[in-house]
């Protein structure tokens, strides 16, 4: 397993795989398209990564900077690789980067019905701090 930084070229080269991973974890109506993956976000290419297994993308995290915190837009792992610490490794990796960059927290949103994802983030030190429509908002303070 190897973590690599995502960039526009890598996204374009692997868009079918990225959409396949996204579709495996998100209902059809919320699946990202090429435009979503290429959307301009503050410092996105500095804080977005993929996990390679046998030179294939098995999971990814797309982040941007908001104020002095990192916001996770998407964290996804193919179902056949779930339970193998890929999501945990990506999450820990970006939290370590936040610490080194002197950011104060990581935030994200999770669908209210996605109990499994809520438990995953809570196991990694995230706390539910509110809601936003159909989503719960989570935050982890970086120390």
Any overview of this molecule?
With 143 residues, this protein is α+β, with helices and mostly antiparallel strands. The chain is 32% helix and 34% strand. It has helices spanning 8-13, 15-25, 34-38, 86-100, 115-123; strands spanning 2-5, 49-53, 56-66, 69-77, 105-111, 127-132, 135-141. Strands 1-2-3-4-5-7-6 form a seven-stranded mixed sheet. Helix 4 (86-100) links the parallel strand 4 and strand 5. The longest helix has 15 residues, at 86-100. It is globular and about 35 Å long. It starts with a strand and ends with a strand. 27% of the residues are buried. The mean pLDDT is 92.
Q: Which class of secondary structure composition applies to the elements?
A: alpha+beta
| Cα-based radius of gyration, to the nearest Å | 14 Å
Strand order of the largest sheet: 1-2-3-4-5-7-6
N-C termini distance = 27 Å
Order of helices and strands: EHHHEEEHEHEE
Largest sheet: 7 strands, mixed
Report helical residue fraction. 25-40%
Number of strands: 7
Instruction: Give the percentage of residues in beta strands.
Output: 25-35%
Shape: globular
């Amino acid at each position: 397993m190897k973590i690599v930084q995502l960039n526009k070229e890598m996204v374009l080269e692997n868009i079918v795989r990225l959409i396949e991973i996204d579709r495996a974890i998100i209902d059809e109506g919320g699946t990202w398209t090429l435009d979503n993956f290429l959307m301009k976000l503050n410092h996105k290419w500095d804080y977005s990564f993929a996990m390679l297994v046998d030179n294939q993308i098995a999971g990814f995290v797309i982040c941007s900077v908001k104020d002095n915190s990192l916001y996770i837009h998407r964290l996804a792992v193919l179902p056949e690789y779930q339970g193998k610490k890929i999501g945990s490794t990506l999450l820990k990796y970006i939290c370590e980067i936040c610490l080194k960059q002197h950011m104060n927290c990581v935030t994200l949103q999770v669908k209210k019905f996605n109990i499994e994802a809520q438990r995953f983030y809570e196991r990694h030190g995230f706390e539910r701090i509110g809601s936003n429509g159909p989503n719960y908002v989570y935050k982890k303070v970086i120390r």
